[in-house]
Design a protein that fits this description.
The chain is α+β, with helices and mostly antiparallel strands. The protein has one domain: Ribbon (Umud Fragment, subunit A). It has seven helices and eleven strands. A seven-stranded antiparallel sheet has the order 1-2-11-3-4-9-10. A four-stranded antiparallel sheet has the order 7-6-5-8, with no helix packed on it. Strand 5 and strand 6 form a beta hairpin. The N and C termini lie far apart (131 Å). About 4% of the residues have low confidence.
Length: 263
């Protein structure tokens, strides 16, 4: 006996289309709203832009608080730095984190406080006027007490004994190269010219440094005002950015400052 195939029930709808294999839509109202699609696309674009911009903003904020620039108005650091040089400075919190001391040979930017200036008989920043602090003024948490911002090279480290004699610099009795030619002056003038490290060796404390200019013939440095406190270090020299012509605005300001000092 042969079996007959049952006839399909006309009321039963096929689950999938024979052509596409997809379920045909049963209700046109379930289609996404074009306006909603546009809003979703705009939102996705906004998120993508935000993901691109946010890291750039973080980098810019980091650069502002990690680096600054300074202008070199004199030849006290010749030949390393020339008058008119604009330099990049890494701030102390990044260059010397967790209170770390600078190393010998580092070129550092520091503040010589009004208290120190007055103690050694130099004119204070207040006496010189509002333009006495050279370089760009600190931002936010990097504000500094009144004083003059200077740049010199680290020669003596904490706990060391610094002595200036016989045309050279001696650290714990050992001569430190290179020689400083400005120290080769008559013995009768030597003691009067450099009060620190000459009459007797200068013993540095645990938080003190001794700094000199690379051009000692024209540098007011540790020979005149003694040891530098670690807390007064503002940053570390990184590199020269460019050199400004003598007709530039910073040179003009530096000349005015020197004229005020002479007056």
């Amino acid at each position: 006996m042969s079996q007959e195939n049952p006839l399909p029930d006309p009321q039963v709808q096929p689950v999938e289309s024979e052509v596409t294999g997809q379920t045909p839509p049963s209700d046109l109202s379930s289609q996404p709203d074009p306006e909603m699609l546009k809003k979703q696309i705009r939102h996705q674009r906004y998120l993508r832009r935000l993901r691109m911009i946010f890291p750039i903003l973080l980098i810019l904020i980091f650069l502002v608080y990690a680096f600054t620039t300074n202008f070199i108005p004199s030849d006290s650091m010749m030949p390393t730095l020339r008058p008119g040089d604009h330099i990049l400075t890494m701030r102390a919190w990044l260059a010397y984190p967790f209170g770390r001391m600078p190393e010998r040979g580092d070129i550092i930017i520091f503040i010589l406080s009004d208290e120190k200036l007055k103690e050694e008989g130099f004119p204070t920043a207040e006496e010189l006027g509002p333009d006495a602090v050279k370089g760009r003024r600190p931002i936010g948490v990097f504000r500094t007490p009144p004083g003059q911002i200077l740049i010199k090279r680290v020669i003596g480290l904490p706990g060391e004994e610094v002595s200036l004699r016989e045309g050279g610099v001696y650290i714990n009795g050992q001569k430190l190269p290179p020689d400083y030619p400005s120290l080769q002056i008559p013995a009768k003038d030597f003691r009067m010219a450099y009060p620190y490290g000459v009459i007797q060796p200068l013993k540095l404390g645990e938080d003190e440094l001794f700094v000199l200019g690379d051009n000692p013939n024209n540098s007011e440095d540790g020979r005149f005002w003694g040891a530098l406190k670690r807390r007064d270090v503002l940053g570390k020299f990184v590199r020269v950015l460019w050199n400004e012509d003598e007709s530039g605005p910073n040179f003009k300001r530096a000349r005015e400052e020197r004229a005020n000092q002479r007056d």
